[in-house]
Amino acid sequence: MGDYLSVPDKNKHSEEGKDHRIAFGATTMQGWRKTQEDAHIARLDIGDGNSLFAVFDGHGGDQVAKYAEKTMVQELLKLQSYKDKDYKKSLEEVFLKIDELMLQHIRQNGSSGRSRFDDYSADPNDLSESGCTSNVILITKDKIYCANAGDSRAVMCVFGSGPETVELSHDHKPDNETEKQRIVNADGFVQMGRTNGVISLSRALGDFDYKKKADFPPEKQATTAFPDVSEIDLTENCQFIVQACDGIWDCLTSPEAVDKFGKMLEKKNMSEREIVESVLDEICAPDTMNGVGCDNMTCILINFKK
Question: Are the C-beta atoms of residues 200 and 194 closer than 8 Å to each other?
Fold first, then answer.
């Protein structure tokens, strides 16, 4: 079976919550994979009435994803830019800060960094081979920010003349021309849609084997943690957000996800958590013949209450 189990593990780890403006459901499921490398954050209030949601899709182990899950909020809150309410800058800074902290631990403890990372991961392998995507949504009183590095994705349903799909993030793939140019400039190459023929992402936390150009700043490395950050006004037309790892986006396009989740919300007979759990069950593949629907799956549904 290679990387797959003989039958999928459909046990789900879910959480839900709501306040005066948001109701959310978050679910993660191992699926067909032999290990679970995803992590996530769902916090209704991190202070000042701000909410934060994040999806981390790990590869090469779960260490980096788990570390980001445990440290993202606390490191964000420490930043002066966050305290100054420069939220775009603070999100850019916190992605790079997490990479910086991991590198410090590696240098202090050897290539594995095990003495520090055992706290976060059940599988403390060599950290230089581990990385994760990072898709973070910060919701303030009047804005929605989405910071993204990798191919986890967030889409929003906005009601205009009808339901419309708004991409809050865009996937970072090595064969994108802008990404490819950065990779080549850092003495890397793209082969079969992969950085140096190995990883299918051009931005990620961790993956330090692809961040070794000593005279280049972090944002210029072949694989960078530096995120794109979008900023959108939070208005009464904002309906809901679907935030998920590529295990979901391999099965659903962004418009398909908005349509599916929107129709289920309209029925008002399931909670946000139940909706996410139902969708994950639906798209989990019946077999591993083509690989679609066979990945770890993590999804957060953020519903703006009216």
Answer: yes
Q: What are phi and psi of 265, to 5 degrees?
A: -65, -35
Give how far Cα 56 sits from Cα of 46, 97, 200, 206, 296, Å: 18, 16, 15, 11, 11
> pLDDT for 243-300, tens place per residue?
999 999 999 999 999 999 999 999 999 999 999 999 999 999 999 998 899 999 999 9
**pLDDT tens for each residue of 106-139:** 877 765 444 444 454 444 345 667 999 999 999 9
Phi-psi region of 264 (alpha: psi -120 to 50; beta: other; left: phi over 0): alpha
Alpha carbon distances (Å) from 302 to 90, 190, 192: 22, 35, 35
Q: At CB < 8 A and 24+ separation, what contacts does 146-149 make?
A: 146/229, 146/230, 146/232, 147/91, 147/92, 147/95, 147/227, 147/228, 147/229, 148/172, 148/203, 148/227, 148/228, 148/229, 148/230, 149/95, 149/203, 149/204, 149/205, 149/224, 149/225, 149/226, 149/227, 149/228
Over range 194-221, report the average pLDDT.
Answer: 94
Give CA–CA dist 31/29, Å, rounded.
6
Provide the CATH number for the domain around residue 39: 3.60.40.10
Q: Residue 222's domain spans which residues?
A: 4-290+298-304
For the segment 75-84, the average pLDDT, to the nearest whole number, is 98
Q: How far apart are CA 274 and CA 92, in angstroms?
A: 33
Q: What are phi and psi of 291, to 5 degrees?
A: 85, -15
Distance CA 105, CA 109 (A): 6
With H, G, I as helix, E, B as strand and everything else as coil, classify residue 48: coil
User: Structurally, how many domains does the chain consist of?
Assistant: 1
